[in-house]
Amino acid sequence: MVASAKLEMASPERKGLVPFTRESLEVMEQHSAKKHSEEHKEDLKPNTDLEAGKELPFVYGNLPRAMVSEPLEDVDPYYKNKMTFIVLNKKRTVFRFSATWCTLSPFNSVRRTAIKILVHPFFRLLILISILIDCIFMSMTDLPKWGPALQNTLLGIYTFEILVKLIARGIWAGSFYFFGDPWNWLDFSVTLFEHISRYSPPNFISIFRITRNLRILKIIPLNQGLKSFVGILIHCLKKLTGVIILTLFFLSIFSLIGMELFMGNLKHKCLRWPQENETETLHNRTGNTYYIRETENFYYLEGERYALLCGNRTDAGQCPEGYVCVKAGVNPDYGYTNFDSFGWTLLALFRLMMQDYPEALYHQILYASGKVYMIFFVVISFWFAFYMASLFLGILAISCEEEKQRAAEKAKKIEPELQQALTELQEGNKAAETKTTEIEMKKRSSTSMITSLDMLDDATIRHKEELRKSRKRCPFCWYRFAKTSLIWNCSPCWLKLKEFVHMIIMDPFTDLFLTICIILNVHFLALEHYPMSLETNNILNIENQVFIGIFTAEMIFKIIAMHPYGYFQVGWNIYDSLIVFHGLVELYVTHCHGLAVLRSFRVLRIFKLGRYWPTFKILLLTLGNSVMALKDLVLLLFTFIFFSAVLGLKLFGSNYKIYVCNIDEDCQLPHWHMHDFLHSFLNVFRILCGEWIETLWDCFKVAGQFSCIPFYMMVILVGNLLILYLFLALVSSFSSYKPATTEENDEAKNLQRAMARIKKGINYVLSKILCKNQNVPEETMDNVSDIYVKENISDHTLSELSNTQDFLKDKEKNSGTEKNTMTENGSQSLIPSPSVSETVPIASEESDIENLNNKEIQSKSGDGSSKEKVKQSSSSECSTVDISISEEEEMVYERGKPKRLKKGYGRRSSSAQISRDSRKRKIWQNIRKTCCKIVENSCFKCFIGLVTLLSTGALAFEDIYIDQRKTIKVLLEYGDMIFTYIFILEMLLKWMAYGFKAYFTNGWYQLDFMVVIVVVRALVKTTLPTWNVLLVCLMIWLAFSIIGVHLFAGTFYECIDPTSGERFPISEVMNRSQCESLVFNESMPWENAKLNFDNVGISFLSLLQVATFNGWITIMNSAVDSIGVDMQPNFEDNIYMCCYFIDFIIIGLFLPLSMLIGAIIANFNKHKVKLGGSNIFITVKQKKQYHALKRLMCEVSQKPVPRPGNKFQGFVFDLVTNQVFNIIIMVLIFFQAITIMIQSDEQNPKIDIAVYWINSVLVTLYTGECVLKLIVFHYNYFTNGWNIFDFMVVVFSTTGLFLPLMVGYYLVPPSLVQLILLSRIIHILRPEKGPKVFHDLLLPLVLSLPALLNISLLIFLIMFVYAIFGMYNFAYVKKEAGINDVSNFETFGSSMLCLFQVTIFAGWDGMLNAIFNSKWSDCDPDKINPGTQVRGDCGNPFVGIVYFVSYILISWLIIVNMYIVVVMEFLNIASKKKAKTLSEDDFRKFFQVWKRFDPDRTQYIDSSKLSDFAAALHPPLFMAKPNKGQIVAMDLPMAVGDRVHCLDILLALTKRVMSQDVSMEKVLSEVESGFMLANPFKITYEPITTTLKRKQEAVSATIIQRAYRSYRLRQNDKKTSDIHMIDGDVEVQAIKEGSYFDKTEGKSTI
After folding, report:
1. ∠386-388-392 over CA atoms, to 5°?
2. pTM for the full predicted model
């Protein structure tokens, strides 16, 4: 983007490059002095293409060798008088220097030498190489012997660089000085600290050496692209300031709530019931400050590290028999997970917001406090985390779009300016220089450069130059050799062979055969598994050889047909040749030890499908272009990761070795640490993947909290910012993806031709076999269409027929794509009216009366004024009920119409048959009409909906305890019978009303259950068209799955010690045979990991866990420890296998995810445009709610309350309405929040007493505030929702303060009052009182609420269905891993809790791990479950996999659309703000301000008030003072009395705002017509003048007055002294008249 603008000129008046001389400096000084004396303001801005560090555009001509590295006059007009000059190096890079004080003269030889050194490309290359070498040494734990000497050398180079820069730029902090660049400050500081570290005491060396790591960041200023992206990200951070503040605000509030709810609860554990001598210790819970330490007396679950938590509530965790729940010991997770203080609570909630291992914290709190508190976690983990993520994504998306638009606008300006510049260069006097420029541009093109004048992009010129160099890199003799040796046109016989081979290899059936071979090869690659029989292995080897032979033959034949020179000009051919070369090499090195990894490269054959798959090609090109455009951002991200890894190594590396016993009982380093660079890099990568809390605990134990938290927060925040920006940039590029239609290569077309030939051949064979002519179907279809037209004409009016035909045409035109035809009445049921005829919707095949004449139809249809749609496929010709169909039913009907056409033109009865109908038939028709009226009645629909809800709700009670609840079980059985009878009755009524065919051909009748149709259809519209992209993503996953099978199949087995549950060390057990030979291992065989890579199916599941970051650490550790098949794993024996998972996360997860979401957004925008910009996830009624919410959020506060006339009440009114009073109240609220922050568990009792009195004082003050407002506002106090909220806070806080004194603190905890008082802090979000930035951030969420509620309802319905299914299948699964007493499928509530965890991708790996227990060794199939007849506690792995995978995919799709809704609302609001358009809210705010200036509603205001009125308006109509000149320029019409009409002002302001908008005239007409409709009694008037004319009149009057006064003064000088007094009186009178005229002028002047 930046490179495409490099040809933009600096100014319209360009000049060539001029040397910077002493005369130039004198001229600049003169201009600068003149400028300061005139105090003239310039509107010039620096040219972005002439910034320092960028290359000089080629339009400035050729750079003479004499001007290289020499001072030149600045070519940017902005710096013309800024006392600067530029220097260009050989690469035309611009360096800008200051020519003023605090530096040597530009003509000083020392400075010139320093400048030449500084701008030389080799100097920058030297610094870059030095930094890279330094980075390598920083990543080393142990330096070689010559390492210190090299470090000294590098330090000398850095010192020399600083000295050169100081001399060349000067010692000052201004622009273009050394200290004017922050990067120079960084470089100077690091070098200074490194010098100090050489001579400082040993205690300070470590501190200064850590600062040396900042030198890694010096890579950024050496690369202009990196520097630009840093500037963009800093700009994003400025925009994110409000989001960060709002996030911290909400986090603090939730932390305070968490403290009040859960403080000290995580210390509750199950302690063994004490003996007689232990009773005293047990009951003395608060006397001992250390409580009871972790001992064997606590109850531990099998395999758990920490004691079982418990609580005193009925829904909390209960202790087993013989144990009692006491507050004892320390908090879980080494004491780092608790809510005992504000800091730890903030960390816990930040962890919940980031969704890192949240399921563990859920279980801990639910065990200790009760399941009811799951609401707290749902709010934080789902809604709060979703909202905050949406805010960050929305702001970053706005920044991405702004950069995109800025680049597009810049590109539009290039072409005309470039053409103008080149024209000037051609027509100028400097013909020689112009000629040189053209010659250079000709050299930089690949063909004749006559067309060089049309070049728009300097990057294109450079690319073509590189291409030309790359093509002509070889000597001429090589080209002659290539033409003679690689183009085989040797003999006629060879040419005939070549033509024959070309005909074969280019035949469509050849491409079809090769495609089938590729698919079969992929299928065989996916068949590999472990364990695999020898026979299967031989078959796969033979298959591999066969396909290698086929691909080799393809390559040979294509080389013969195209000759080598032509063959290798095609990229896909080169790829095919590499595949063949790899296959042939693999055949020869298969048995070589250590080269078996070559088998993994077989998966590259999968991507041969891209040759025949246009979508894959387009996505690949889009991905390549996007990555190339974002290469600097990718490099910046890698630089940050490398810097973080080195910093972590230097900060904590030695601590992990010294204090290793704090984190491991055996004093061995774990898998995740930062003792060396590789592990530090992996740790940083894990943090960026969202898994950081467990490594943070380890860091706490080895290095302390104060050093670990800043490091981790830096990595999390900055790293996620970079990743999110990169992700959104990729999504933005893929959102412009369009499926391939016309752009297809020859291979894809050949496949279509081959399939067409096959289809034609099959039809020909069938026609011969069946002895039928091919023309018969066409004639049949013609008959069908004729009969259909007749049928439509006979059954419907002409207008209905034309509408139907138009609909069919539109349907054909859209190629089967559904259109959203929802209207305002589409979702509403029709209310029968007397003016509309009625028709019973009976299926046509079942109609007793089969024909009617047209007159009868016309009489029933009326005059056609009714626009209701009638269900034509099921209407009885003799019925009298018109049933309007909903949009969904219409779509079902339209889909079913072609099927009806095939059989609907059968028998047609004559009209004479009507008279022969029997009385029974008429009774039957009346019965069907009555049934139709019943089923279409709104009450019946509501009743059926209620019964449906009750029947589905009843399923929730059928849990494992149903047999123990006899009464509920009996009620459910009777209820089930009643519901069944009701549904049968409903089905019979609909059968009779609609007929069998109409009932069973309607999908919703078959399902008989209405799910949020709008949301489902919207999801289908946004997702279904992306199936091509989804297939590409699955192909990438398939490749990684096959690679995983090749690398890890059979290597995850291990020998486990049955007594300790740990793996045997490799010193004791080396392989499977040794494991099976152990005597005590009979019950524990050679065991495989439950998630492995033994086949492609289980590999997909393992990769899904890696993709959702659930259980991926265990899988990765197993891979790193693996050695080989039937070999006992060893700790990190295969450490570099972590690269496989890193590659998958980047290539298999990050990139495909951006592709898929980009395609979904593209479809979302496409359907949104079809709907006129409205949200596709809301109904018509909700669109009205959307506009109502928008008005509510933009409304100004309620009508102001008049000030009371009573003096006392007036004083109180002034007090409570003063801004200072509100500030004092907010200070009290924040003071109360601070008092909660400073509290902690087990605090001093004196603090509790102080908190109680503080709460009492606050309650008193709030009560006083409420009383004062009631005194002055009276009943108006309760017209404001915020006042009602404050009143309720006062009532409840007062009650909560005194109620514990009466009923005790156990029933009413003291924290209740604090929480009630804390709730007033939400006043900061009040639109008029709080910061505007909060209102702007809340607006997109509020406007998205209707769509989000619809999507949330769909999520709930899916969760409900899956919860019931989970109860029926996994209720009795053995409790281990992720299934425990809190999270299980025993009851409906627990099932919903499990599914909520899966919805946020938390802990589903543990649940699936428990369901995998299906063998005798893992579970007991005969276990007796008390209270039920079901036996066993085993799971069903297949059902579990399908259950969790399907739910994850569905929930992911829904949540992605939730994010899209909010982010697109952000972009919508931002685009409306940027575009100078006016909305309904802007006009409403205009009239609200107008009411203040025109309280009598005269529609006029005095012209003298116009300035204040314009300044009181809201943007974009706002006009800041001084604005009188702008108002005069608007030329507003004025009526008698210098009054201006409201409509004239509104139209003028609208025209001013939308002056650049093409739709301005349309908006003006709409505004005028809307005003006339709203004000039908507008007072007509004839304007007598305008503001501009009145100003001219005032100016003219002033000139006349001044001339008259001067005339009178001259006349007075001629008069004699005897009438001096009289003339003086006259003069005084004239002065008074002049002053009167001045006053008049002041009134009339605006």
Report:
1. 115
2. 0.79
Q: What is the number of helices (H) and of strands (E) in the chain?
A: 61, 9
Reading the block at residue 151, the tokens are: 């470090």
Supply the pLDDT for residue 425. Answer: 52
Structure tokens belonging to residue 999: 């009932």
Q: Peptide bond before 1421: cis, by omega within 30 degrees of 0?
A: no
Helix (H) / strand (E) element for 1541: namely: strand 1539-1541
Which stretches in the chain have pLDDT values below 50?
1-14, 39-41, 279-292, 429-472, 741-742, 772-914, 1005-1011, 1081, 1578, 1617-1618, 1620-1623, 1626-1633, 1635-1646
Pairing of strands 323-327, 268-272: antiparallel
Least Cα distance to 83 among 67, 65, 103 occurs for: 103
Contact 1163, 1454 (CB under 8 A): no
CA distance 93 to 88: 5
Q: Tell me if residue 22 falls in helix, strand or coil.
A: helix
* Residue found under tokens 């758990």: 304
Query: Which one, of 1472, 904, 931, 1406, lies nearest residue 1194 by Cα?
Result: 1472
Per the DSSP assignment, residues forming a β-bridge with 229 are none
Contact in structure between 1508 and 1496 (CB atoms under 8 Å): no
CA–CA gap between residue 101 and residue 1140 (Å, rounded)? 58
Cis-peptide into 1516, omega within 30 deg: yes
Residue 1534's SS3 state is strand
DSSP for 1349-1408 reads HHHHHHHHHHHHHHHHHHHHHHTT----TT-SSSSSSSSHHHHHHHHHHHHTT-SHHHHH
The DSSP bridge partners found for residue 68 are 88
CA–chain centroid gap for 1029, Å, is 18
Neighbours of 292 (CB within 10 A): 21
- Burial of 1369 per CB tally in 10 Å (0-12, 13-18, 19+): middle
Distance of alpha carbon 559 from alpha carbon 576, whole angstroms: 12
CA–CA dist 427, 438 (Å, integer): 13
Read off the tokens for 205: 């060396």
Give the residue from 122, 143, 119, 118 showing the smallest Cα distance to 133.
143
Q: What integer pLDDT is reported at residue 839 of this predicted model?
A: 37
Kindly report the number of other CB atoms within 10 A of residue 1606's CB atom: 10
Beta bridge partners of 55: 93
- Residue 1108 DSSP code: T
Q: Strand, coil or helix: what is 849?
A: coil
For tokens 């040397």, what's the residue? 19
The span from the CA of 866 to the CA of 1467, in Å, is 40
How many residues are listed for the chain in this entry?
1646
Residue 181 confidence (pLDDT): 87
Distance CA 882, CA 57 (A): 73
How far apart, in whole angstroms, are the C-alpha atoms of residue 843 and residue 999?
9
pLDDT the model gives residue 1041: 94
For residue 1325 the two structure tokens come to 């979000």
Sign of CA dihedral 798, 799, 800, 802: positive
Give Cα separations from 1020 to 631, 812, 820, 1164, 1581 (angstroms). Answer: 35, 20, 12, 10, 57
Provide the pairing of β-strand 1539-1541 with 1500-1502: antiparallel
Is the bond preceding 1533 in cis, omega lying within 30 degrees of 0?
no
C-alpha 645/C-alpha 140 separation (Å) is 12
* Sequential DSSP letters for 758-782: HHHHHHHHHHHHTT--THHHHHHHH
Rounded to whole angstroms, how far apart are CA atoms 1646 and 1643?
8
Distance CA 629, CA 633 (A): 9
From residue 871, alpha-carbon distances to 219, 796, 818 in Å are 70, 11, 19
Question: Within 10 A of 646 (CB to CB), how many other CB atoms are there?
Answer: 23
Whether 117 contacts 164, CB under 8 Å: yes
pLDDT at 468: 44
Distance CA(600)–CA(855), nearest Å, equals 77
